[in-house]
Structures are given as structure tokens and as C-alpha cells.
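Example record for the data management plan.
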Amino acid sequence: MRLVKYSDFIDSLKSNNGDIVQDLQIHPNRLVWVADIEAPQGIEVPQKNSERVKFKKSKLAVVFDAETGEKFGTSVIETP
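Corresponding structural encoding:
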């Protein structure tokens, strides 16, 4: 787990070719905890249409507000 500014987390997604859905309600200097979870066998993510998308070897980044503990979201990053 790592403690970073929200803007640094977004920059790390950009550098890892992750999908970037930035929450504009979160101040860029807000401190967040990021839990990185390796998924070497890949992961299936359910979609709203009841289908599932399969990501090959991946990493999950789960983001929490450092002050309140509220979960801000999860990003899936497909790794080589």
C-alpha cells in the first residue's frame, strides 16, 4: 500500500497505459492510499449488460481517501 497525492496516482495510471477516469470532485493534492493487487492469471470484470470482460495478466489499483477511508474506486491495468 502506498500513500500518494491523487494527481500522482492519475499520473501513474497514464504511465502504465491504464484507463484514466479521473474524478474531478477529488482535489489533485488530496492524499489517497493505493493498494496494488497483482492478478497474474488475469481477471474477469462484470459489465452492466451482464457480459464479462477478461483482462489477461493484470494489476488492480484500489484507491481510498487517506483521511476518511472511503473507497474512491478501482482501476484494472493490463500488464505485459
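Summary line stored alongside the record: The helical segments are 6-15.
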